[in-house]
Write a structure and sequence with these properties.
GO terms for molecular function: peptide transmembrane transporter activity. It is a single chain. The protein is an alpha+beta fold and 542 residues long. Helix content is 33%, strand content 20%. Strand 2 and strand 3 form a beta hairpin. Helix 9 packs antiparallel against helix 12 and helix 16 (467-478) packs antiparallel against helix 17. The longest helix is centred in the first third of the chain and has 28 residues, at 2-29. Residues 1-28 have low confidence and may be disordered.
Length: 542
Amino acid sequence: MLKKLTAILLSMLIVAGILTGCSNTATKSSKELVFSIPSEPPTLDPQLATDQYSIIVGNAVFEGLVRYYDGKVYPGMAERWDVSEDKKVYTFHLRDAKWSDGSKVTAYDFEYSIKRLLDPKLASGYANQGYYILNGEEYNLGKINDPNQVGVKALDEKTLQITLKSPTKYIESLLGFISFLPSKKELVEKYAEKYAADADKMVYNGPFIIKEWKHEQEIVLVKNPNYWAKDKIKLEKVRILIITDPNTAYQMFENDELDFADVPTPLVEKVKSEGNALTYMDSFEYFIRFNMKKEGKPYLANENFRKAIGFAIDREDYINMAFKGVSKPATRYIPPTLSGLEKKFAEEFPYEFYTKKADVAKAKELLNKAMQELGITDPSQINIEITVDDSSGTKEGIEAIQDMLVKNLGINVNIKIVTFKERLQRMRSGDYEVMITRWGPDYDDPMTYLDYWTMSEGMINSGWTDEKYNELCNAAKNTSDFAKRNEILFEAEKYLLEKGAVVPLYFREKVWVKKDYVKDLVRTFSSGSDPDFIYASIEGGK
């Protein structure tokens, strides 16, 4: 009897232990979010970061004067701000906030970081984001040498004043963008080019800190105990895995190893038919860029040749072959999701330059003009190499584009597939001929796309620069008449396409899935990053 009772008690203890263990696991996992990105962030230095993956992580571990979340501007490090009557002077009043090392976040941190962004010695690809600030462009281009002339000044530890060249309607949302997130001067100077290269070479002022960074494998974030609004952050831990293959990532979602994932192209129809698919337009535009400075390739600098490429491509067939019909043909440059004055910009200014289907006759006409201008007698004398990264859908689609160009124009086309990181490096160094690349909005305004082409070097590095185009963009920036401004932006868009500076391909639509227990995860272009998991939660446990 005693043995039987002992066995019963032992069984009860084991079961209780198991249940306790399950309870602890559930409690732990219920505050942990796990997802993947296809490439490691090239840098987490806020003033150097330009890519989507750096922005995703940077948005979580740093915070600017404001936080841009789900299309709206909220107080960040600044608890409030005042705007002058002429809308050119913004005075930000900082809250009591700390870096993750316990030191104060001050207005001097922001003055230093913004001037660092504009410092020509840093050569930031996003320096132009600071051109809205008085003398920001002049300082970056070396026209003035004194950073004290730039319209950014800390009046004291908790007051920052920013003076603009002219009223800028989206300046508040722009100040929440990664380029304007703070870097701590002492660490930048200590680590130099290694600043923000590892978790222990930076400090954080955002909702999370990086606990572990296994390069090319995983980034582990944990809640920042020093964050001023830590009580609003429900997740205790976020694991961001680096999974280059989208099929692998989706299978991990199916195996309950990831909490949400994008759907690989081959599975889109199946997932949609099962009713599990979520879709949204993220406003990323994929387009063809040309290296117009490439030696031995004079046709890349010829606008008729570049436009011939654009009309020879069947965008609908390309999207169907590469993405199972998911995404929209880009027959213009400005995406349909961006705001105009009262409606979407594309609604206020309807326009199509290129065609959804290939216009072979027009493509050949333009090619013949280009050949006459260049003294080329046969299209087979033209050889181009298209560089593309190995992201989802691109490999399948590039072969379709290759076939279209060979068939419709008779030119020779080679393909070079590289990693996402290498593509960025080649783009910035000019080591390419033709490249399929992408751009996503930094703020909800057409200027975020048009301003991209005002730079001929740095992040753009295509060799295309045009005085009239730059004048149009500057005129739009410097007028306080927003209706007139949008008309100028439309004129700039048309001019850009007429000059063949860029060949739009498609506006990306994303198909994704998530577990039902994941709540308040924002996936939209109108947020600080995509995905934005800052206020996400796990309800009901995993």
